[in-house]
Amino acid sequence: MGSDGVAGLFDPDRVAVVGATDREGSVGRAVTENLLTGFDGTVVPVNPNRDEVLGEPCVAGVAEADAEMAVIAVPPSLVVDVARECGEADVRHVVVLTAGFGETGAEGADREQQLREVAAEYDLELVGPNSLGVMSSPTGMNATFGPDAPPAGSVSFMSQSGAFVTAVVDWAKDAGLGFKDAVSLGNKAVLDETDFVRAWGDDPDTDAVVGYLESIDDGRAFVDAARETTDDTPVAVVKSGRTDAGAQAASSHTGAIAGSDKAYEAGLDAAGVLRAESVQELFDSARALAGGDLPESDGVAVVTNAGGPGVMATDAVGDAERLRLASFDDDTVEDLSAAMPDEANVYNPVDVIGDASVERFSEALDIAAQDPDAGSVVVITAPTATLDFGELGAMIADAADDHGVPMAACLMGGDRLADARDVLRERGVPSYFDPARAVAGLEALAEYREVRGRSYPEPEPVDADRERVREILSSVEERSDNRLGVEAMEIFDAYGIPTPEGRVVDDAAEAQSVAEGIGEEVVMKIVSPDILHKSDIGGVKVGVPVEEVGDAYEDLIARARNYQPDATILGVQVQEMIDLDAGVETIVGSHRDPQFGPLVMFGLGGVFVEIMEDTTFRLAPVGADEAREMTAEIDAAPLLRGARGRDPVDLDGVVDAVRRVSQLVADFPSIVELDANPLVATPDGVRAVDLRLTVDPEELES
């Protein structure tokens, strides 16, 4: 890496524009013009066919530019050679605007691979290709071909879409949001979201990091970087493609439910990254997060000069996941009663009524903000003739400074409130039009407070017979199918996950013998990798008396052969009866995501799993605390804890099973997906009753 790493992309003294030109409408002209307009440093046009560009003298090659950074806007066929010239000239920071790479097909992908190799050879910090460019407000650097530079501020912004950068920059001017650095990631041939999260986490002038992402290339590296950054600097993203059900067909319940978005949800949560549902929510959150103060409690005080909007704010607080209306103590109510007119409402939300002056607003705000339960404050104003809005904005900002309590202003008007909006923007207090959006900004602060308080302990070690698991998984190499079922139940035994007594047998006499060793009645299931839904074909018999086991064996085999004559039948599982009525059927599963690796799922199991989708996911492996959180997150959690007179199940046993399954799939990358369904939880313990897993033979250890 260069001596100043990724940060050097945002603070060069000299920038070479390779492919600079005067030609109207060209990328080379647009980026040169943008740099010449506002950049504090020196711009060096590079073009062997010109003596000057836009009045600046041109040099023929990068080597003559003596620059720290190069912006490349040449045709695709020349980019790799120019990148090599940058490396030879010791220009470590390179931004490739040119398109025509991995996004265009085989030839472009090959060119992108060559670019990656050159970057590795010369240790280039390279943005792009197919990037709009980079911007940095402190030096006025707009090294993009977008139409405008962003307003200055303390939020740093990355986007996988170049067009989105131009839209956000344009919108930010009106929205009261300023940027420190911005980058269009392009194709992410070298630098990706992880590099920028890490760099901005180290940047004292970046108060919040926001991003628009379509993909995360290396999920686990991103999680590690974001965990470090979010200790001091909040990170919020919009991840598009929320409804993508996943590119590959999944044969397990977990795989079918997981899809790609569940992996991103689990990954972003594990990273401590706030996920916004929309672009508006992302930047509403960013405005609040850039302020710096965090609420000490979840109580929200509302101070308003308009009754209706006060009720709207109250509703929004009620709808928020982490916030509640602050409960004022007697001193606060008495002080407000003394300071406000008789018609005012002195309980939360405080209504200072429509004729309020700035002074009355200020008194109410000071009293409400000092209440012990007020962790944050929403100040709402509708335009009235009794207010000077410049004064009002300064008063709100002063109150925020004096009390050290996060404040969100809700300015419900247009141009008449512009003076207040301008003052608040300068003073770093977020303002919004809609009370619900102001509350959403405060909710982001409450969520970030939780993130900052998190620790990430290593999962407790699991004793396991890993060699036995390796043998069982390797059995797929001798089979035509890479799926394993109950014949692989020993995997659970090897990891200390309790299973019912039983065995897979391949003749009637052995079935009889196993049953006699179990008890008076048994469960019997056909074992075939080709028959996934056994109960649909009568391939499961429950409560078979021991003396009838031989006949039941023959019947199950016959049914399977009639249903699917070419199916591979491994035999019949004879298993101890578990009293399902005394327990709760849950599922513990895993799905291996291409970006984030193995996820572990817990939820309501049995036949309900795909209908109800009452499930929760984490990155595997998880420790006991995380596993316990998972058991509390599902809608059916009260069933586990003994709802409606039922006895509570052995929750410690459930937690232990989740933990052990998560370690199993983390230890064996060859497990693509796995279901323990049902994992029956009773007051006396848990039992994994069934197993289905898919193995990737190429990932099997030799």
UniProtKB/TrEMBL annotation:
Entry keyword set: ATP-binding, Ligase, Nucleotide-binding
Enzyme kind, highest EC tier: ligase
Presence of keyword Translocase: no
Pfam families: ATP-grasp_5, CoA_binding_2, Ligase_CoA_2, Succ_CoA_lig
SMART domains listed in its UniProt record: CoA_binding
Highest taxon, organism lineage: Archaea
Gene3D superfamilies to which the protein is assigned, alphabetical: ATP-grasp fold, A domain, ATP-grasp fold, B domain, NAD(P)-binding Rossmann-like Domain, Succinyl-CoA synthetase domains
Record bears the keyword Ligase: yes
EC number: 6.2.1.13
Gene Ontology terms, MF aspect: acetate-CoA ligase (ADP-forming) activity; ATP binding
Residue stretches making up the ATP-grasp domain: 489-525
Record-linked SUPFAM superfamilies: Glutathione synthetase ATP-binding domain-like, NAD(P)-binding Rossmann-fold domains, Succinyl-CoA synthetase domains
Catalytic activity: acetate + ATP + CoA = acetyl-CoA + ADP + phosphate
Name of the protein this chain belongs to: acetate--CoA ligase (ADP-forming)
Species assigned in the record: Halobaculum litoreum
